[in-house]
Amino acid sequence: MRLIISMVLFLISILSGMVYADTAPDIRFGALPVIQSLPVFVAAEKGYFKEQGITVEIINFNSALERDVAFTSGQISGYFGDILTCMVLRSNRIFIKVVSVVHNATKAQRMFGLVVAPKYIGKDLKETVGVGIAVSSNTILDYLTTKFLAARGIPVSQAKMVEIKNIPIRMQMLASGQVPSAVLPEPLTTLAEMKGARTLMDDKGTGWSATVLAFSDTLLARHPDKVKAFLRAIEKASEYINRNPEDVRPVMNRECRIPDQLKQSFMVPTFPKLALPTPRQVDDVSQWLYQKGTIKKEVPYAQMVADGYIP
Q: Which residues of 231-253 are buried (b: 16+ CB within 10 A; e: fewer)?
């Protein structure tokens, strides 16, 4: 815990020392190099933010921790993430609200999978996770691990959780058999399969893995028109991606860090129209975090979600 606190303080000190241009952008938005954030990168690449009359600085982070520290210290006013991380911030009086879901797995398209190492293929899943399943505590991957195991009737208490926060290292350890199983995001799930692993379950059609756009309460209150303009640009980018998937492949490969083996073959994801998360999605995350003891009390839907910004 002391190490984590030291890392947070160190990151805040660095971020607080950043020097920005004299003319600040309308929105500084934090993004991660994952495929669900593709509309953010396409909107910037195609000039859609400028078309909407706003200036947006996209700040890339290598981890959710770095992004959350930047938001906490006021260096960004919005970000791409998931309901879970937003809720943890909100419960700690860091005032952020979700304005829209930007992506979720569909019946035809997965985003996360429960994968077993090659030498464990064919073995009983309960026995396999009893030997070990790689996790990253209090993250969307942790949440999905619980969901996947419950769907197979396996209590989390009967699984041996192996903490591996770095996702690429998690995939490498799975492929080499150092850890029997793991929950991985795309495109690493597909890459693991190429290396001989097998996906036993995924999130297709479950609604569990919504990725969202979120902004500070301050920005939402003071500049609602800028947030609406941001979402119009994202909506246009999503529509462009859906119509022209191969045209945006270079952007996806570069910004979303697609592995070399998959740069030409990995399917460009499709994106839905922007919409609010459902009360059920938010309440389920809230209950899970509360039961784990991560938050002291459940966060009501109205405190977590801001309506009226989607075009």
A: bbbbbbbbebbbeeeeebbebbb
Task: Report the DSSP pairing between strands 78-82 and 211-216.
Answer: antiparallel
Burial 37-73 (b: 16+ CB within 10 A, else e): bbbbbbbbbbebbeebebebbbbebeebbbbbbbbbb
Q: φ, ψ for residue 43 (rounded to 5)? A: -60, -40
**Ordered structural domains, the chain, with CATH:** 2-15+24-104+210-304 (3.40.190.10), 112-202 (3.40.190.10)
CA distance 29 to 233: 13
Give the Å distances, CA to CA, from 55 to 46, 47, 94, 97, 237. 13, 10, 24, 21, 16
Name the helix (H) or strand (E) containing 126: helix 125-131
Summarize pLDDT for 113-166 with one digit per residue, the tens: 999 999 999 999 999 999 999 998 889 999 999 999 999 999 999 999 999 988
DSSP secondary structure code for residue 261 in this structure: G
The reported pTM is: 0.89
